[in-house]
Write a structure and sequence with these properties.
The protein has 3 helices and no strands.
């Protein structure tokens, strides 16, 4: 969980500026943060045997993970 928090913190810091150094606002910032959270949670979507989750289990896991990120 600490890695997820560090990733989210880094994403928040990076989301503040675009390639030109201007602050991201509105939809651009929201989209960036959503993508970052999804990318941080996707690798963790595995069952206890290390097999990738699918279907409803994956959807539920990703929703919970993204809320907490």
């Amino acid at each position: 969980m600490g890695a997820a928090l560090n990733t989210a913190s880094a994403a928040n810091a990076l989301a503040n500026v675009d390639k030109n150094g201007k602050a991201l606002v509105g939809a651009a910032k929201t989209g960036f943060l959503t993508k970052c959270r999804r990318e941080a949670c996707e690798p963790k979507a595995v069952d206890k045997n290390g097999k990738a989750l699918t279907g409803a289990a994956k959807k539920s896991f990703l929703q919970k993970c993204e809320r907490e990120a």
